[in-house]
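sry for the spam today, last one i promise. C-alpha cells for design, 262 residues
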C-alpha cells in the first residue's frame, strides 16, 4: 500500500479522535534508507521480495533496494494515470483507466489481467495467498488469480475505506470500525465501532496490523485485536506512506524512506 495503502495516498479523513486504548507502548527506532529526499516525487509504493516498487508523479515505475540503489522499469511515463497498485508474487500490478496490468519487474514485460475496463469499479484491493482480493464500489468482494479468473465471495456486506491482509484473513476499516473476514465465511466486528475514526493509514506486515492516526500516532495490532502504541504521541506526523516489506515496517516522511523498529 497505498495506502488507503492501495489508493495511492488517498486516506479516510475524519475529525473525530480515536477512542481506542493501546495496551502498551513501545519506543520506535528510525533508520534512514537511501538518500535524503529520494522519494519526494513518489505517488505510490509497495514492498516485495526485499525491494520497493514505486511510481513517480510523472508515471514512471522504479525499483529500489535497501542500499538505496534505484532502477527504472519500462519507459518513462508508462504508468501515468495509475490509481491503484499492488506488488505480489514477483509481479507488479496496477490499474490504469479501469484496466489492470501485470508487470514482470525482471524484464519490464507486461500483460492485462482480465478484459479491458473490468476493474473500473474497484474501490480497494490487497494481495494474499497468491490472489488479488478486491472490493467494488458497491461493496462486492472478489478473489482474482493472476490470469484474471475471479470468484465473487460477498455481495455488498461492507464498504470499507481501508483493507489489509494478514494471517489468511482480510481486515477492513469501515467508518471507524474494524472488521475481520476469513474468506468464505462472514465478516466479524472487532472492538468498539468508532475505535478507528481517526485512521489515516492501515496496512499489514507479517504478523501485525498497523494503523496511523491523523495526529501522527502509530499503533500495532495483532490477530486478537490487541493494540500497542509504537513510538511517542504524534511522532509520525508528516508521514505520507506506510510500506510493508515482509515482517518489517517502512515509511516515507518528507520524501525520505525509513525503516521502523521497536
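last one done:
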Amino acid at each position: 500500500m497505498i495506502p488507503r495503502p492501495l489508493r495511492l495516498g488517498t486516506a479516510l479523513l475524519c475529525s473525530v479522535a480515536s477512542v481506542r486504548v493501546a495496551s502498551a507502548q513501545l519506543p520506535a527506532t528510525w533508520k534512514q534508507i537511501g538518500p535524503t529526499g529520494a522519494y519526494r516525487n513518489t505517488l505510490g509504493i509497495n514492498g516485495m521480495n526485499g525491494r520497493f516498487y514505486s511510481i513517480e508523479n510523472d508515471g514512471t515505475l522504479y525499483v529500489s533496494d535497501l542500499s538505496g540503489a534505484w532502477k527504472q522499469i519500462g519507459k518513462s511515463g508508462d504508468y501515468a494515470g495509475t490509481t491503484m497498485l499492488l506488488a505480489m508474487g514477483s509481479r507488479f500490478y496496477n490499474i490504469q483507466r479501469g484496466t489492470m496490468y501485470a508487470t514482470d519487474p525482471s524484464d519490464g514485460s507486461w500483460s492485462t489481467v482480465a478484459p479491458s475496463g473490468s476493474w473500473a469499479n474497484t474501490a480497494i484491493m490487497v494481495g494474499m495467498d497468491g490472489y488479488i482480493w478486491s472490493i467494488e464500489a458497491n461493496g462486492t468482494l472478489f478473489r482474482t488469480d493472476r490470469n484474471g479468473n475471479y470468484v465473487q465471495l460477498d455481495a455488498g456486506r461492507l464498504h470499507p475505506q481501508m483493507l489489509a491482509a494478514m494471517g489468511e484473513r482480510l481486515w477492513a476499516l469501515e467508518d471507524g470500525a474494524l472488521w475481520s473476514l476469513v474468506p468464505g465465511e462472514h465478516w466479524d466486528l472487532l472492538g468498539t465501532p468508532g475505535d478507528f475514526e481517526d485512521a489515516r493509514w492501515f496496512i499489514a506486515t507479517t504478523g501485525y496490523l498497523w494503523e496511523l492516526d491523523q495526529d501522527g500516532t502509530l499503533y500495532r495490532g495483532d490477530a486478537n485485536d490487541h493494540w500497542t502504541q509504537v513510538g511517542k504521541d504524534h511522532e509520525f506526523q508528516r508521514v505520507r506512506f506506510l510500506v510493508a516489506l515482509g515482517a518489517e515496517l517502512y515509511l516515507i516522511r518528507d520524501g525520505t524512506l525509513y525503516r521502523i523498529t521497536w
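Confidence is low (pLDDT under 50) at residues 1-19. ok im logging off now
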